[in-house]
Structure formats: C-alpha cells, structure tokens
C-alpha cells in the first residue's frame, strides 16, 4: 500500500461556527477533493457489558442460526419500489438507494424506514436493504464487509438496467462499511467531472450515528462512562467479542508502522480511492445523537473536534421531533491526512504497553488526522436529541427506528431523512435541466 503523505503545509484555520448555516441549512453541492491523492467493578463486569451493549449477550446462538438461514435462503437483500395507485409499477426506477445496517444486525432493521421511504419517495427510487453482512459477518472486519457490500451492489446494478443514480443510507457500523464499499466501487472519470459509484451518478451519502473516527478516545464509546481504566482495557478486549472489526474500531489493527484502516479510509491510496469516492457524492450528511447514545459518541458521529461541539438547542425543528439542529460545514482546505512517525511510535506503545498516557496520545493524533482528511469535503451535520423521549437511552436505535414499538421516538428523524432525500432529488433534477439547456 502506498504510504500516506505527510503534511507539508498547515491547513488554513477555519471556524465552522463562523462559516456554517445553522438550523435552516440547505445542503448545496460541495466541491470534492480534485486530486486522488452503570459502574463496572471488574474486567468480567466490563466484558459482559461490552457484549450486552453490542446486542449479543444471551442471543448469540439464536441469531447465528437465523443468520445462517438467511444466508442460505436469500442470496441478495430486499428490493422495495414505490408502486402506482393500482398496485402496479408503471415506470422503472432509476435511482438506487442502498440501506446498510449496523453491527450484528440484519435487513429487518430497516423495516420501518423502508415503509416510510416507500410511502414518501417517488417511483424513481429503488430501495435495497443489503443482506451481505448479517449478524456475525460484521465481526470479520470493515474491509471484508465493505468488499462484500460492493459485490452485492454490483449485482443489483447489473440486474436493473434502468438505474442511473445511486445513494446510500447507513446506520452505525454500516456507515463505515458503506464508506469502504464506495471506495471499491469508485471509478474516476476525468478532472472536470465527478467520478461514478458502481457506474452510476452518486447523489447522497447519509449516515446515522456512525463512528467515523472510531470508538477510541474519551467518551467516543459512551457506555464506558469516560473512565480512563475502562477505555484503556477496552481496546484489547474488543476483538474477543467483535473480532477483527473491534481492533479496527479501536485503531489497533495492523503493524505499528502501518496506518490503521480508518485513517487509510480518509485518503486515497492503492487500497482504494476512499476520499475521492466520498467526494463523488453531491451531498454528504451526518446524523448524530448529541446524548444518550451508549454506543457512538457525538464527536465521532459528527466528525468534530471537542472544541467544535456546541450546546444544541432543546427545541425540535418544526415537523421533525428530536431533530434539533442542522448546519452545513464547507470544505476545509488541507493536504489531507497522514501517518507521521510519532503516530507509528504511539500506535506501537498503545498496542504493546497500553498505559493511559500513550493510549490518549495515540488516539489524539489519529483523531486529528482523520478529521483533517474528512473535512476536505463539505458535510451537512444534523444533531438529534432524544432527551425528551420516553426512553432516551435507546437513542442509538431510536435514530433509525430499529423496532417500531420500542424505538418509534425516531420517527421524526426518519421523516427528516426522507424529506432531505426528496429535496436533494429536486435540486439535482433542477441542476440537470439547467445544465442541459446551456
């Protein structure tokens, strides 16, 4: 793999709060990077909590059997296309919307979202809930899951000749899997036009509570309560429960002198053109829980530094309960992310002798580098707060209404997602008409 470039210039300091449109922000197409370049008293208590929070305590055997059944009976995920009033499709969809579930989950997590999107979106959309990474398959690594998703998307595109555009909607770990997949699916066109994803025009890339910066660091994995000792021992314990994916999320994967996967995914390298692939999308949107999400912290899900976090409003946007703030963050010019020598030394120390000091040093270096890489692109960031809901501690699953009975508090978020997709589709059609008339 080509080594990541080191910084040769200092990125221009930009204050997001001075440049962002808040609360009523509309996401305009942004320029992409043009160059491919409860307290725990013992480790046993922590281990149980870790497995329980990932949803595998007590249901491993049942869900594994269920996953095996799904993998043998369904070679592809579920298709959903809006139909006409008489129940018969009167036109072929041309916009593929891929839904990607999170860790130890399945396409059934999207049942409510599929229903709402089918009701709200036009007939030009083909909804596809991915099934290539169900349940324990998500433990084998983000890269392996990303390649499987890429192959699955290729099959879908090949089976539908009418498709011209593509978008992704992903929850939690699914956002990282989707980011890897689009890097694999990316095709460079020329310097004047954005590249394509799976041979299609890329429109929207939307994530819900995704740990874009990993889960290492103070309160990035909130159920550890910010306790330094728990955060220190979490990294070596994680792979026991969530396999190779765990080491990638904690940034300890690979040899000390090799950048961790999540850092490589903020740049272009021989592995894939990750940042160019994200830049090919006309719109990139992050939905982040500001509190009560025990799995994914606000910084990592919204790609922000600690200093960039502002206290969110308590009132919801009109018509979208629990959606409290929207801002557009324009691209921040920089030379991209790197893996400097001090990062390699810090990684080796964090892997071999994980003291609180060297662990903090390593994740601080990595977080800054990943943010620099990802902030080369413009993002629309949507803050979600379930502080007034009946079960606020279900925030991680509320945000995409995993279960309609338990997590219905997130219905306003799903409505916001649907209306955002509709707005973007209209903007795209308008810009296409203008371009055609010139």
Automatic annotation (TrEMBL):
InterPro entries with a match to the protein in the record: AB_hydrolase_fold, DUF676_lipase-like, Lipase-like
Domain DUF676: 91-300
Gene3D superfamilies for this protein: alpha/beta hydrolase
Pfam families to which the protein is assigned, alphabetical: DUF676 (PF05057)
Protein name as catalogued: DUF676 domain-containing protein
Source species taxonomy: Eukaryota, Viridiplantae, Streptophyta, Embryophyta, Tracheophyta
């Amino acid at each position: 793999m080509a080594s990541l470039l080191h910084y040769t210039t200092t990125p221009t300091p930009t204050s997001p709060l001075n440049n962002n449109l808040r609360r009523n922000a509309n996401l305009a197409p942004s320029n992409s990077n043009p160059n491919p370049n409860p307290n725990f008293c013992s480790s046993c208590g922590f281990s149980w909590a870790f497995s329980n929070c990932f949803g595998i305590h007590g249901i491993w055997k049942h869900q594994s059997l269920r996953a095996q059944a799904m993998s043998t009976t369904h070679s592809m995920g579920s298709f959903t296309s809006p139909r006409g009033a008489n129940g018969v499709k009167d036109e072929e969809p041309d916009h593929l919307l891929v839904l990607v579930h999170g860790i130890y989950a399945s396409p059934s997590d999207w049942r409510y979202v599929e229903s709402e999107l089918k009701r709200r979106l036009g007939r030009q959309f083909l909804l596809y809930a991915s099934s290539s990474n169900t349940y324990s398959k998500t433990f084998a690594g983000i890269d392996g899951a990303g390649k499987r998703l890429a192959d699955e998307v290729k099959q879908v595109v090949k089976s539908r000749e009418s498709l011209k555009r593509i978008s992704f909607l992903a929850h939690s770990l699914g956002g990282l899997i989707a980011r890897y997949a689009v890097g694999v699916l990316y095709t460079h066109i020329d310097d004047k036009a954005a590249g394509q994803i799976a041979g299609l025009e890329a429109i929207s890339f939307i994530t819900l509570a995704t740990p874009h910066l990993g889960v290492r660091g103070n309160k990035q994995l909130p159920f550890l309560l910010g306790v330094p000792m728990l955060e220190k021992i979490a990294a070596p314990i994680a792979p026991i429960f969530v396999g190779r994916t765990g080491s990638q999320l904690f940034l300890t994967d690979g040899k000390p002198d090799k950048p961790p996967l999540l850092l490589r995914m903020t740049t272009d390298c021989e592995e894939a053109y990750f940042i160019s692939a994200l830049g090919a999308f006309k719109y990139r949107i992050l939905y982040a829980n500001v509190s009560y999400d025990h799995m994914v912290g606000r910084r990592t899900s919204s790609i922000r530094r600690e200093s960039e976090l502002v206290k969110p409003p308590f009132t919801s946007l009109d018509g979208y309960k629990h959606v409290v703030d929207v801002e557009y963050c324009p691209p921040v010019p920089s030379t991209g992310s790197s893996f400097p020598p001090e990062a390699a030394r810090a990684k080796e120390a964090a892997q071999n002798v994980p003291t609180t000091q060297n662990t903090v040093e390593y994740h601080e270096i990595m977080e800054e580098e990943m943010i620099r890489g990802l902030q080369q692109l413009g993002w629309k960031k949507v803050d979600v707060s379930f502080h007034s809901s009946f079960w606020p501690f279900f925030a991680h699953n509320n945000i995409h209404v995993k279960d309609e009975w338990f997590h219905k508090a997130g219905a306003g978020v799903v409505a916001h997602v649907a209306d955002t997709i509709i707005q973007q589709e209209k903007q795209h059609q308008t810009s296409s008409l203008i371009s055609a008339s010139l």
